[in-house]
Structure formats: structure tokens, C-alpha cells
């Protein structure tokens, strides 16, 4: 009688859910206030702390360089950001506490042991060591600026507000480094335009979760918001609105700089030959004309792989993209190519006949993708592709990264891709655009990426994963609470040791972390009944 | 290969969904900008308009009373609100357009044909007539202030922004009244505390959708945020936090006044005898002590129905509630009473024995609820109860309203409840806390409440319905986009004629309405790929 059965006809979902209104003796324990004070999310490789706490001198807190430390603009900017976070964490109470007897935590000394770097990369070193000793002296050491950034995030999470409202930190020693080098979040700015300030807000969220890649699925069938200097018609004709729903070169630069300061790579995806309807609007002749019988029917299919103009276009566009986006990698897409339009087009079929591939549209797809890969490589790009490229037998460079997204035994696909010697990214279990009632983060958290058949060498070829929030049903109104804290579950899976996998142990820490994000200005949604000390908009 | 299979173990959901990443030839048409300019949501009973448009004199627009109109503070406040909405709708472009040849729409003349009323009620008259004639003269007539409020909302929706950025309105005639008298939204402020400004924002949303009841599920097991003057310990000990997570008497008054100005009733729910854990914390002796064997085990069950102090408490609390909340109705709950704690308690069993009801816990529940109903009636309250009260055979007053929430053939339950002669509310198909990927609003929209077996008299006893957003997974961070525009589907189902039920016809209107809500400051989530002219946070 309390079980409810729903049918969602449009997407064939059957949800057999228990009652929302729980029996009074049986309701789940709410998550209340500080559930895991001073815990760090994602959990460090080693985190030892004692019950001893030191009050934090919030109003006079100082970040300083150790005497032998290298200095760096990235570190200086982080000093400012985390200084503001610490001040803000204290709310109105920051001036009340001036204990005289206990040693106070008055600052963090940062020791960067190597010269600064400009841009984060797949190979960056994110390890760090952090210590708050019994004299309330806090030190952070790292071999690269990226480790310093990760360590400062951890340090800021060590500070917590006691019941009396005082900001304190425990005596702590942390030694930390990530398990996987590529920990990404995909946002899709084509199905809906995502305003720049919403993107920046989510880059803040990524930093708070030690996510280090923003996979920017910037264009797709529905709209082309990227403003190209070489091909201005692409956004002029392909954006939802050519003035208000675009990313100018300055917008792109702002996003990249904002991410760089937080040690986050921005990897753009220009998906071809499918997912290109909007691209075709501003580039006549690019897409295949679909035919009904012997006449064009007004529809367009994937990019036309049989004409040279296609490759000139790709070369010019990607050369521009390479100069705008600083990362060594581009995501080339390559997924979900429909053959029906190619099949209908006489010119395509004639070309295939003259090239001895009559009827073999997979081969045609290979021809296209091969050339795009070669162009990208010649420009100097390393590349990521969706799994179909390899599934369809395209010859790719040895250093290609293959992203596994189809949620039909992704473990088998990882085994296959790594057996071929390619590096792999896992996205399939973490499609956050799929929603359901309840605590789906537990499912994301419980998926162990390395559980596939393969040698130790193969396991090493899995370089990380991505949480994907496709844009069909999200825009500025709801994208941030839909992403957080669900993506936090993926962040910990990809950063922390494999052994950190207990959902029950993670729950109070994730609640604490969610409340921390809320206090920092990220409208992360609740996990479960309960409350945060500082609620969103209260 | 593109189908994805998910298992959510915690709530037994199996979702078999099609791919999120559509084939490029097969992606759904995005909803772009003005999809149904000047359409009104929910759709009026009669709405006739022509293609002829008049520019609106936005910057000098005037609301005026007709010469014979009654005047009213509620109307005056609405003039101010809708004046601001009209000015805001024009954005930066309001001063550009000064056409000289076309007649301009310069104002709306309001004719209230009856004296003002203070508070909205179940019996209020919400009908109105609205006209924009060929001389660009706009008039609104209604027999009550509530009709004027509904008509002003419709009028504001007739104005739309043309592609050139000019605000215009079509020649229009509308005759309108609601299909059902009770069109409610339940928000739950116990599983999560919902900040007052978030409640007010959603009352705005209700007004934009002609929802006329805010069902305030104010307390439950998890927390008791209502501050009682007679029993201050209820919130002092039962709220999540007795200072920051409460509704003071002033907060309650603010919510009621904000709703009153918009013609929206506030019906509080104080659910008993179950769902009362938090209530027990501040009122020792109220709840039943649960036993293991012959000893109390520290847990508490439903309210103890066998002691007189219980009824004194209810009488005092509800008397206070009656003076704070102005509506004639209270929701008394009565759902999901677990018997196991009563069964374990020796004193309860002894009392039952001495009252000749040994082992009959349904009878015990009846005894409790009967007295609560009698107390409520004596105070002067009419009441709403959840369906179990009637299912369990409690004798209720003839004017009781029974709310059907269990989603197991709610049509049969409606048939049963109305056959017994009670009025009914339908909530079962509209539990918006259940979420799934895709356009679930279509399912809400397609549920026809009157499709149950019964006579014409029985059909009349169905007085409306409610969209319920239980609070387990929503708070200020996400409650508003989760509610809107999904609740808008229910709003149209309950307001518009039964024949207005075509999902495809509703889609462009709902997109337009969603974008309108966004522009007015409600972060309503997107329905589908596409864009609004004015995006949230862009």
C-alpha cells in the first residue's frame, strides 16, 4: 500500500520506489550540522589527526612562503582566495574569540620546492604534505605548484566551526596524492547555453573537490556558441542567439584563466563527424545533404568526408582552437555517427565506389576520422576520443586517450581498449544527467574503475574518469545543484585510494563537505534529510 | 548498445533509459525563444485573440480603477507588483519604441464589482473577464477581488517581447474561471528547513500559476520549526536549530500576508498521531514509550492516545495555530500510523483492555483521531485529512476534505471517498519529490482527476488537488527549480477545462511560461533542450 509504481512512458523508466513519507518509527536519521568536522573530501591518502584542537586566528590569519620556497603567481592568488574563504567561514563571530592560553593557529607556511609552472597538464604533480603540529604551526610542502593548490584546499577543509562558533583545527598530518591523473567533469553548453558565471561557479566547485579537468563539450547539434574568428558564421548562424548565447574569445580566455589559477585543465570537445547540425548552419557544404530518392530532402547528416573543403575547414578551425585553448589535449568526439544520410546521398556513394569501399560506411567513417586525427596531430594536439572510434577500427596514435561512455559492461570495454595499448578514461557509470529519487551518489561512489580484466600494465593505462552532466535538462537555473555533491562522489573515487570505498563511512564526511560547499557559495543539493549550520539562502 | 541499464539498490529503481546523446539526425527539436508568444498559463476557459498587436507603453503604463469599481488594498498592491513586472519585462529596451501611428496599450482599467474581501477561501470567486479591444483599450472585470488578481496575472502574460525587443499585446478577449476550487502545492519544512525567502519566492511562483493554496507541511518527525508561544519547547528542543531553523510568529505572519496579497490560502498541517518524533522532544509524556519486553527501550512511537494530557496539549496548540493561521482549514494529517510501539507498551494495552478494545489498534487510532477532529471542530476549524483516516473507519464530520495520496489506484480511492459523501483532494499522481530523467511533467499533465467511477454528484465532491514536494531531498539550494515548471503542469490540469489536455499543444506554451518565470526571478528548470531569450544568470 505504501509502494508506488510509476511509468514514465517517454523514456521507458519503471521506478518501483518505497514511500516518501516514512513510518514514524522508521525514518532515516537526519544528517545534522557538523557530522564529520575537519574531514577532508576527497579523503587524503594518509590523514592522521588527534582530538587536540587549536583556535584559528581568523581575522589575522597569514599565508607565508617558507624561506627557501619558490614563489609563484598561482600561489599568491591562492593565498587571496583561501584567505577570503577562511574569513568567510567565521561568519559574524570572528572577532569574539581571543583565547590567551592555548596556542593559536595564526598562519600557514607554504614551501614550494620547484619553480612555478604556467598551465596544469596531464603530467602535473599534485602531491603534497601538510602538517599542523603541537605548537599550532602549520606547514605545506609540495614539489609543484599544483600540489600546493591541492594542499591549500585540504588545509581550508581542516578548519571547522565548533558548536560555540569558534573556528578551530585539529593537530593533523596529511600526506596526499591522487590515485588517477585525469579527474574530469563534462559540462555541455550546446543543449543549453550555460552562462559564463555559472561555468566559473562550477570551476570553483571542481577546485573544492580536487577535480582537475573541465571537459568543455562546447558545441553539438543543438547550438554552436563558440565564436570562431576564422569562421564567424558558425556562431552567428549556429548559436541559439548570436549576441547573448555565445562564448567570445574573451569568455573562453576568462574560463581558462579562472581554471588555470585553480590547477584545472580546460579540454574542449569539438565533436565530429556527427553531432554537428549547428556547425553546418554557418558553413555551407560542410554537412552531407540527405536524400529521399533522387532529391535532397532538406535535412543534413554528418560532415561530408568526401570533399577536400571539409579538411581545410577542420584544419583552420582546430588551429584556431589550439591557440585559444591552452591544453595539450583536444577531445575529438567521434561518437554516434548515423550512416543513413550518407547512405542516401548519391555523391557520397559514387565517391565510395571510386575508392573501392562501396557500402562500407564504417570504412568511410574511418577515412574521415583518420584525417581529423592526422590534422590534429600535425597541429600539435594530443587527443581524446569517444570509444566508438576504436570500436570501429580507426587507427589512432599510440598516445590516444579513449573515453568509455556506453554503460553496457564498461569493464569489458576498458579491458579491450587497454589491451590495445591505449590509455582510457571511464565515464559510463557517472552520467549525472540521469536522475532518480534518492541517494544516487552511493552508486557512483561504489563503482570501482579498476575492476576489469587486465594485466597490471593495462590497469596503469586507465588514467582516470569523468562525471558527465549532459545539458538536455540543465541550465543556469539548476545545473549547479544537480552537479554537486553528486560529482563529489566521483571526485573521491578518482582521487582517494581504492580502499576508501565505504559508503556509510563516507556519508557524514560528504554531508560535511556539502555544507562546506554551500557555505562557500555553491548551491550543492542536500543528500538526505537533515540540515547545515549555514543553509543556502537562510 | 546505446541503451543504458542502471540499478539503484537503495530504493529499488530500475531505469531502462534511451541514450542521452542522441543520434545527430534524431535529436529532439530544441525549444527556441518565443514558442507561444502571449499565451496564458494555465490556459483560460476561453481565450480569443487576433494577430493584430499593439505596442505597450511600458514606461508610462497605468493601472486604473473603472469609475464604478470598488477599491481594495489587495488590488492596489497588485497594481504595484504587476507594474514592476511589466517594467522589468522590457529590459533595457523600454525607452526605444515610441510608435506614432498605431494605437498603444497605455493601461489596464480594472472594474471590481463587489466590495473587497480580507482573506482568500475555498469558496472564493476567481472568475474574471479581460479584454484588449481594437482601440487598444484594456479592461478587466470580476465579481471579486480574487478574480481581479487572477485576471491581472493573465493580463501580464499577454504582454510579450517581439524579436525586435518591443513589448506588445494582441487584441484579446478572455473569459475565465477555474475548474477546481482547491489548487494546492505542498512544501515540507521539516525534512529540510526551507528559508522564509525561499517560501516567498515559491508563493510568487504559485501566483504566476494561479495556484491558490500553500499547504504548509510545517512539522514532521525530523524537525519542529514552528515556534509555539504556548509550548516554546517544541521548537526549542524539536527544531534542527532553535535559533536559525525556526518559523517565528512573525515569519508565519509574513508568509500568510505575502500569500494573502496574491490570493493564496495558507493551510498548515500538524500531522498526528504519527510523524511526531520532533514534537515529542519538547513535550515529555506526549509520545508513546516503546518497550522491548518489560522495559522501555528509549524509542518513542506515535502520540499516546490514552492520557488526557494529550488532548489538553492538542487543544492548546491548535487554538494557538487557529489564531496564527487565518484559513478556515487545518490539515490534521493522520497518515502512516505504525502500531508496533503501541503494541509494545503495557500501559497502552492495559488501557485498551479496560476500554474493551484489546488488540484492536485501528480502534485505538480511531479513538485518538476522533478526539482530535472534535477538538478541531470545537475550535472552529474545518479540516483536511490524509486518506488513511477514512480508510481506517474514523467517523469524520460531513464537511471533511479527504486527501488521496497513495498512488495505488487513486481513482478507486476517489470513488470510495466521494461515495461516502466526503469532499476529496487528489495528490497521488503529483508527488514531485519523485524524480526521473526526462519530461515527467507530461505524466502529471496527462492524469485526468475526474476519471473515476462515480455519479455526477460524486464528481462534484472532488474539489481539486495538490502537487506535493516532500522535503527529503530539497532545501533552499534546489527546491525552486525542482518545483517549477513541473508543478505548472498540475496547475493547468486543475485550472483549465478538462478538454485542455494535449501535451504537444501544451509544450510550446509551457516553454514560454517557464521562460516567463525565469525572467520574473523564479529559477524554473528547463523542460527540454533549447533556450530562453533571457536566461537565468546570463
TrEMBL record, chains A, B:
Any single biological process term in GO: glycosaminoglycan metabolic process
Gene3D superfamilies assigned: Chitobiase/beta-hexosaminidase domain 2-like, Glycosidases
Organism: Ciona intestinalis (Transparent sea squirt)
The protein's enzyme class: hydrolase
CDD domains in the cross-refs: GH20_HexA_HexB-like (cd06562)
Family (UniProt): Belongs to the glycosyl hydrolase 20 family.
One term under GO cellular component: membrane
The protein's name in its UniProt record: Beta-hexosaminidase
Active site: 336
Record-linked Pfam families: Glyco_hydro_20, Glycohydro_20b2
Gene: LOC100178428
InterPro entries (alphabetical): Beta_hexosaminidase_sua/sub, GH, Glyco_hydro_20_cat, Hex-like_dom2, HEX_eukaryotic_N
GO molecular function, one term: beta-N-acetylhexosaminidase activity
Catalytic reactions on record: N-acetyl-beta-D-6-sulfogalactosaminyl-(1->4)-alpha-L-iduronyl-(1->3)-N-acetyl-D-6-sulfogalactosamine + H2O = alpha-L-iduronyl-(1->3)-N-acetyl-D-6-sulfogalactosamine + N-acetyl-D-6-sulfogalactosamine; a ganglioside GM2 (d18:1(4E)) + H2O = a ganglioside GM3 (d18:1(4E)) + N-acetyl-beta-D-galactosamine; a ganglioside GM2 + H2O = a ganglioside GM3 + N-acetyl-beta-D-galactosamine; N-acetyl-beta-D-galactosaminyl-(1->4)-beta-D-3-sulfogalactosyl-(1->4)-beta-D-glucosyl-(1<->1')-ceramide + H2O = a beta-D-3-sulfogalactosyl-(1->4)-beta-D-glucosyl-(1<->1')-ceramide + N-acetyl-beta-D-galactosamine
Glycoside hydrolase family 20 catalytic domain ranges (all copies): 180-497
Cystine pairs: 72-116, 290-341, 515-532
Keywords, ordered alphabetically: Disulfide bond, Glycoprotein, Glycosidase, Hydrolase, Signal
Start and end residues of each Beta-hexosaminidase eukaryotic type N-terminal domain: 40-158
Signal peptide (from-to): 1-17
EC number: 3.2.1.52
